[in-house]
Design brief:
This protein is mainly beta. The protein contains 1 helix and 8 strands, in the order ββββαββββ.
């Protein structure tokens, strides 16, 4: 069986970080996802999709994402049956996020993500001289591969 969803859209509200009784982090948010086609009236339609993230993913989303931010969500569709306060049977569909990625490169022209660098190679020193390239010696003139 396969249940995999990949969505790209903008957060419609700030993520809400909560904790379960046992202390597990859970974050809920909603994505506005534009459809690829226009309606008969010539306008693009948008779907609003509920997302829930757990544990480290929940903490990551609540820390680095906010309303209006573009996000790519990878996860699975989950259907829940529940009873409302009036005793009526209800059904909800939501995406349980396995991974959430930044969908935009900069926010409001800033070069970072709320204090987090756009790219940071872990445990690697910057090259000396400000260049990302190093000269290869020509000892025997052959390629190293």
């Amino acid at each position: 069986m396969l249940n995999k969803i990949i969505l790209m859209g903008r957060l419609t509200r700030d993520p809400e970080l909560r904790r379960t009784g046992s202390g597990t982090a859970v974050t809920s948010f909603s994505l506005a996802v534009d459809r690829d086609f226009k309606s008969q009236g010539g306008e693009k339609e948008t779907d609003f999709i509920d997302i829930v993230a757990w544990r480290n993913t929940a903490e990551f989303v609540s820390k680095y994402f906010s309303k209006g931010r573009m996000a790519v969500v990878e996860g699975r569709l989950q259907i829940r049956d529940w009873t409302d306060k009036d005793g009526g049977k209800r059904r909800s569909a939501e995406v349980v996020a396995d991974n959430v990625y930044f969908g935009d490169s900069k926010r409001d022209g800033a070069g970072d993500f709320g204090g987090m660098p756009a790219y940071s190679a872990p445990n690697q020193a910057m090259p000396v001289g400000g260049s990302d390239f190093a000269e290869i010696g020509e000892e025997d003139g052959e390629l190293p591969f």
